[in-house]
Amino acid sequence: MTNFTVRTDKRTEFVKITSLVAKCLSKSSVQEGIAVVFCPHTTAGITINENADPHVLSDMVMKTSELIEHRDPRYQHGEGNSDSHLKSTLTGASETVIIKEGRLQLGTWQGIYLAEFDGPRTRCVYVKIIKG
Ligand code: ZN
Asked: How far is the CA of 9 from the centre of ligand 1 (A)?
């Protein structure tokens, strides 16, 4: 397993980590298999989405923040970040990407992102490359 950290700048943002995951893959020398990308946090996640138009990411930040409000008097969690936990559950903690001929089999428009929902923070990402 390899891991790396990502420093986020905003409370909610998507940070592209495709090249960092690809670096983990190239260190492994695995040609065929899968890469599991896992985020060990409860207020962040991992997702795959558009890597070309940055407006897709800003739209996702805008709409998820609108749908899941930061402040809601019905939240019972005392830390004040229930919205972050909810968003993290929607995103999920991991993604699995197929490896073929030593490369991540992402679509042309796909990128791997750390989804930050309670930043700014330093986040860990674990990458497990499995030959098969
Ligand atoms: Zn919390």
From this structure: 19
pLDDT digits (tens, 9 = 90+) for 19-45: 999 999 999 999 999 999 999 999 999
Choices 3.40.630.30, 3.40.50.300, 1.10.1740.10, 2.60.120.460: CATH for 2-71+79-131: 2.60.120.460
**Sign of the CA dihedral 21, 27, 32, 36?**
negative
Q: Which pTM does this prediction carry?
A: 0.96
- Sign of the Cα torsion 84, 7, 104, 33 reads negative
Residue 82 Cα to ligand 1 middle (Å)? 6
Tell me, in angstroms, the distance from the centre of ligand 1 to residue 81's CA: 5
Q: How far is the CA of 70 from the centre of ligand 1 (A)?
A: 12
